[in-house]
Amino acid sequence: MLRDILEEVALTRYEIGKAALDERVMAAMAKVPRERFVGAYDRHRAFVNGPLPIAMGRPFRNPTSSP
Of 8, 15, 11, 17, nearest to 64 (Cα)? Predict the structure, then answer.
């Protein structure tokens, strides 16, 4: 998943105004077990590079799509 994020940042660097995410952000994303923040029903999608549903059916945005 981190590779996907790095690729997306590289592709959108002009839109997001930075060539890379802060190393501390990337380290935290590598360390924190994403599947622990996803409901049991969607756990199989924890590492899919796309939005996940949260409460009330709203999607959780990708880390790279949030400012």
Answer: 8
Distance, CA of 54 to CA of 38 (rounded, Å): 8
CA dist., res. 50 & res. 18, Å (int): 21
Report which of 22, 44, 27 is spatially closest to residue 35, judged by C-alpha positions. 44
Tokens at 26, concatenated: 């990337």
Which residues 6+ apart lie within 8 Å of 38 measured at CB? 45, 46, 52
Tell me the C-alpha distance between 28 and 59, whole Å: 22
**Mean pLDDT computed over 42-66:** 70
- Say which amino acid occupies 13: R
Provide the pLDDT for residue 11: 92
* Residue 58 tokens, joined: 């709203």
Locate tokens 């994020």: which residue?
A: 5
